[in-house]
Structure of NAD-dependent succinate-semialdehyde dehydrogenase:
Amino acid sequence: MIITVNPATGEQLESYPELTGDEIDARLDKAQAAYQDWRKTALGERTELLSNLAQTYEANKDKLARMCLAEMGKTYASAIAEVEKCAALFRHLAQDGPAMLEPERWSLGDGKIAEGRWLPQGPVLAVMPWNFPYWQVARFLAPTILAGNVALLKHASSVQGVARLMEEMLIEAGGPAGLFQNLSIKSDKVHAIIADDRVVAVTLTGSEGAGRAVAEQAGRYLKKVVLELGGSDPFIVMPSADLDAAVAQAVKARIQNTGQSCICGKRMIVHTDIYDAFMQKFSDAMRAVKAGDPMDETTDMGPLSSFEQRQTVLDQLALAKEHGAKLDFGGEALDREGAYMSAGILTGVDPDGPFASEELFGPVAMVFRARNIDDAIRIANAIPFGLGSSVWTSDDGERERFIRDIEAGMTAVNQMLASAPEAPFGGIKRSGHGRELSRHGLHEFMNLKTVMLPA
């Protein structure tokens, strides 16, 4: 049995029976049958479904947002924004997606040509996390629909209500049965599904450990895999930066989604010339952060997604202090009902030590002092992850150095990094491989078939 819990109150929400082996087998049969029909549908039918999905999400955004709020503690405003972002992605691919699937042509000489056709491959399994429970799934589901594939979802146990609603939204939008199925299972059932011949590929967003396990199984069965494994993104501030803007975005990076975002800056790397000024402003702003009722418009951040997640962050902070770091303030469980904790700042972390590679998935920032741009880049790269990065400078030369030398899949200049339907999303090093979103994400699970033709 899978049980969901409201992290703001500790109240049990609902229980979901875990699928049996026979039930999983029936779902895979249904997915395979749905694929045989969906792969032959006209592109216009697929884009119409995406347009309908956008309208359906917008029409039901209050219901969707309230489920997200109840299951993982997201504030109502941010939950509404997440649902609207999903609608924007569906609409973007409905409008611009067909051009991304246009065949390419090459002249081969001797009167011959070759064409590259983008074709679907089959059912794709997605193993998705709880932190952005609609958006993470939508950025897999939307290209799956457009490509002509079908979708199987293993969502996080804590957001089964969200997963059920997403399946209902597809049916309400006019999607055929079997095109998108939520599998109410725990992680121990994933390996057998990857091994099944009816599943052609797998995508995962989650921890490094989960990524290793899924990639190992996918490799064993020669299945394509895309991995987004998070990281500990650098947020670099140089003397020429707009300090007030940088501080405001640094705070937002650490408290957005109660600090539970893969691509928001976690390691603030500040040039020594402005370090004291930055710390004064940053500390004042972080101390003022209000944790509270997710439905209250004045709340800056809700609870963490679960009591277990809060304990994980508290244990990490205790480990940091054992390694010589100092918790300047905050980072404590709040004495109130729910999985709340205070925003905080951690200093004195050895940039070359083991704790600097920890991903603090909560509202606490690590702050480092950098002597110069070379030192800032060295600190940024001194960890095994490379998802995103944010750099703050008005110097063109520094900007180009950061873009060239920071080891990451994404770099934002004078802004907080954020995902967008139009731009490729993904990392390097231990943050995974492959891309989501944009035309590159659309093509990840498609067959680029070369067709040889006479002129």
Observations:
- The chain is about 40% helix and 20% strand.
